[in-house]
């Protein structure tokens, strides 16, 4: 027990000791953080909010934030977003004085800063602020790096603007947008305008009607023009203070009375003063330069000060850059003036014997500060670029290497380093090359560039392309040099630069090719051990000339049999004992690259190398070795693949090759297996300066990295060569291809796919893409269960989607998953049963993360993002064709995030970019999901003006119509799993909406392609859509302010309605008056024949005059200017169906006609092919409601009626709705009154368009009606037929007149004549008469009858249909209202068609019958 108690006490003491240690460690970390933050707080954390507003700051309404203290040196404002949008929306004052910010663009209304009133950002490094703060009143950006004033359009309430102590220059035009600004300070800037330019600038300042205070002092132009105050006071009448001088009433009167010349008069004197001042300043500057030189000790001390005290960053960085600028300025002078500059640069150093540590220290300090301080990155990179001109002690080369490291870093640093390298470093190189191309300074700079290219020659194409001038100088030296061994660094750089196609073509001449041939033949170069690198570089240059040069260049090498000599050298190296030495391996790889270039351009050389010089045996001998250098492995596999791609060589040697290489299986060991370590060690040895053979035991000290950390370029290129070789044999092949069959069988037993999938861990995009290209070509039957899991895990591990080419790799992984889903065999079944659910979840999560990426307008990034999203959608589409997987596509998480993805696409994608089309998957067949995006109350409600909303409406219509997502096109493949229909583009969707609705039979034929799940799901979704009031949701979404106002006007016109006359129509005012007369006079049953023009008069009138006279029977005479039947086409019938009306805007609003057309198709689907009776009657009931119908008419009337046939489509929908209730039993009088009102509203709507249809009919002498015009006429007649068929029902309804709300019809009794008069106006009757005559007119010579096109028969049948529909309306009218019979028949009996022909008697007979 004592021992137990003792152990217990010891355990307690131990726990207490551990706790104390943890507390002390935590306290030390906290103290370190406090110390670091006390010196330099570069980012905002939650503790800063605690310090200002207490621990409960998250629940406090924060109205003011002050980050202007000495301890704050902010470099970013990202910490502000620790506040949620609610807290942020209360912030009114933000002080960011004296920080290191180079951007404040996060301060936007859309980011939650809605109430920000005062923003102070003095003493920062802001250069181009882009602010959108609608309530901002005061903005202070003094002492920054502005070169232009900020855009004021996003700050409409701004009253105080302080921009002093910046670098602004140019025009004052930006201030014209600050209409409410009262106080403007632009003092101490760089405005240097002459008097005449000042006059132009004052024109913009005079637009600031509220300006009372202006400060302009300290600008250069004031120094040379002291009378500026007079002109400013005279022009700006609202000013009360100018440059801190109060403007009194007396002063303004004196200025107004002063007689001064125009401002242009002072230009000459201004320029003379300015020139004198510049001469004086230049003189002083020369005196200063003569006594001051840049020194390394100054740069070193400044860098150390920055590391010790980060608060000195801005000041010291500017000083360092000044020293670097001074050096490059002096070094560019002629040699006799700047010979001792470098000696001065290295002076005052304490230890002048050990320069290398000092150089390394200075360069490392540069790199460290660049990595730590983003705000100073650009300036320090510029200074580093300028200092590459220092050649002594390797300082310039070290600076060049540092630039190369930066250029291989993140994209932002790479872009900045490239911008510095091109204008500065190249200028330095050109200066020294022109002075002495073989001089010490030139050699140092060129060696530095060579080192940069060696690190990664694949990523520096832009740099190489920009060095054309230097390349020409270097090539000139190579052509003239007697001995190339004096300038091997020049040959090496030319070899690097000509690796790009552009540079290669530029210098690929026969002369340079001959020079290379001679150098290869030169034994003093080829056999000298110390010139082996020069020989290798000459081969590289020759290979570049062969790849990019014309045929004449290749002929130079072929005629001299250069490839034969090179093969002989390769045989010697391969048979020697030094194959693993870096120098020999480098030369051998260059030989194989040279041979590959020749064989690729000249097939005869390929055959010659294989048949006569046994290159295949040489390659197999090298590749079969157990230990092989990565550069040799890469170039040898490239050469071998090139040979195997030749059909003759493949059929002749493929079996022998795979046999000697033991069926390619040993190469898998290089890819992370047993031989991977040796491969890496040889690569590391080649990168070291010592290029001798490794000593015994030396390799053991090299640490072998895992694949996740593999970044060695030589090893990665070897990986690529092996992957390409494996992929070559994995290609689809026939049963006679024994080589591929044997290789694939052997590879399958050694888990080829697993080895390749493990390579996805390598942080190199080119390897990942090569792996996926290889796997995608393989049959899916070779992928086992474990490899399926590896594919899904690879997708899950790729979290940073925007890095490099990750999007492309993920796209190929999606393609592989899609193939597994579509596979009909056991592999596909296993995947769908075991991994499909997990795959869908991971893929959807990837889609969400990808949709949230903001590409900031970068075209390439947005394209990659879009390609990945579309590949994911294609995979989801494939899953949607498998019934067992559909339930996984409707999980709660997928449904919940669907609106987020659609909203992200709307907000973060350009309007003219391709569409993601997630709604075209099984997820998008859920109308609940689609309605959630369309509800105005939803947090992710879509903008009705954007294309995403239109696509969703079109998708709703597709689902309700019963369109399948399967590919129903004919295919020769026999497959049990249906393939998805290819994604429809926006243009294809618009083309579908542009066409008129298919008829019921066509829609029902589509239903036979639905599988059982799709059939049942359509019914379920339609019922949900109706119960969720989907039609009202969409109608409200389309009803903006314009629609609501139009609907209100329609409601007002229902009681006292008449069509408005238009100046372009030929409708007579007397006719319009008669239509508007609500107590119509009873017309006489008969008119005396004498009341009409006599037979003589009829014979004197032309045919079209007679037709005009009859159809407008109320006219007494036909005026000369009114005789034309062919007026201009009314603007209401303009066909406006462009997708995006405003083509200049990148964030375009879509033409609303497309959304309206999609909505009408939804209505058509529900009334023509309704899934259930419940849906049908609910829709019909809603369509006949007065408020819904006025809203619907208003929506349609806001666009031209022929665009997408929207009016015709509405008439078709109402035709089916009204026909259904006309055929139903007669209900109560209240319901009949409501229906009568609906009929009456549609008849008024139809009559609105009747006058315009008549105008179109008058155009038909010159042209026939267009298809959409004929469709409108057809649908008008069909609807009116249904309306008139309901007249007997209304007439039989008792007390109908007591229930309808028409106070203006005091004499309405509900008789047939009353109902017909109310539902069919005289204007509509004339329109139908003219429509019937149209077909007769076409047959009699109207339109372009001399042109008989391919569609003439179809057009003739369509015209007959138009005439028959119009005739049915007239027949119904004649039956229902006998009083109108005489007028209708009279119009036909006296009408003449063109060329003096009358209406065919057979037509009149048919009408009467």
What does this structure look like?
The chain is an all-alpha fold and 1409 residues long. 59% of the residues lie in helices and 2% in strands. Strands 1-2-3-4-5-6-7-8-9 form a nine-stranded mixed β-sheet, with no helix packed on it. Strand 1, helix 3 (85-88) and strand 2 (93-95) form a beta-alpha-beta unit. Helix 13 (355-372) packs parallel to helix 15 (395-407). It is globular. Mean pLDDT is 79; it is low at 33-39, 287-291, 335-339, 689-697, 1056-1127, 1301-1307 and 1341-1346.
Q: Would you kindly provide a brief summary of this structure?
A:
The chain is mostly helical.
Kindly list the characteristics that best describe this protein.
mainly alpha; single chain; 1409 residues; 9-stranded mixed β-sheet; 65 helices
SSE topology:
Layout: H1 2-39, H2 46-53, E1 64-66, H3 85-88, E2 93-95, E3 118-120, E4 138-140, E5 160-162, E6 183-185, H4 195-205, E7 213-215, H5 220-224, H6 228-235, E8 241-242, E9 245-246, H7 249-257, H8 267-291, H9 296-308, H10 313-331, H11 335-338, H12 341-345, H13 355-372, H14 377-386, H15 395-407, H16 411-435, H17 440-455, H18 461-465, H19 468-480, H20 488-497, H21 501-507, H22 510-521, H23 523-526, H24 532-548, H25 551-559, H26 562-575, H27 582-601, H28 603-611, H29 615-623, H30 630-644, H31 647-660, H32 676-687, H33 713-730, H34 738-749, H35 752-758, H36 765-777, H37 785-797, H38 806-822, H39 826-834, H40 836-851, H41 859-880, H42 892-908, H43 927-934, H44 947-961, H45 986-994, H46 1000-1006, H47 1012-1027, H48 1030-1038, H49 1041-1055, H50 1069-1076, H51 1095-1100, H52 1103-1111, H53 1152-1168, H54 1173-1183, H55 1186-1197, H56 1206-1222, H57 1229-1258, H58 1267-1285, H59 1287-1292, H60 1296-1299, H61 1312-1319, H62 1322-1339, H63 1352-1376, H64 1381-1390, H65 1401-1408
Parallel strand pairs: 1-2, 2-3, 3-4, 4-5, 5-6, 6-7, 7-8
Antiparallel strand pairs: 8-9
